[in-house]
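Justification of computing resources. Each target in the renewal requires a structure prediction run like the one illustrated here; the chain below, 148 residues long, is used simply to show the kind of job we budget for.
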Amino acid sequence: MLKSLFTLGLFATAVHSQTVEIGLPNKGDQLAAGSDQIVQIQRPDSLTGSDEIAVVIGIQQCPNGECTSPDASLGTVLYQGGFDPQFHGPQPPYQNFTVQIPEYSCGPAIIGVAHMSLVGASTYPLIEFLNQTVTIVAALCPTQAEEA
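Resulting structure tokens:
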């Protein structure tokens, strides 16, 4: 029993060490509608081997401040394809993706990410979902005062 718990703990640690983080944009950043923006996906370094499969980056508006979880919908897909994080100085390995924010977007939104990889010698399939809250701004966006 103890050996099984130890193995399960090591497995959980190995899988957790392969998770990714959204480095950019930062929480609460204002992104201009129609602009090119960098989405940075970081994968902290690990001793456990993994094969990166892909990432999907999407954006969805949050009417009334409520968003759908990225595991249910990524909204408008801005990027889908390979993921090959590299070291760039003291930061964890990462890859930058330049995406275009839709012109029709306005107000609260989330950047959603789906990440897929195979972890360890057993090639455990890891699929995870992340999000970062942002605000889409444009000259034609209604202001809070106009909505009240």
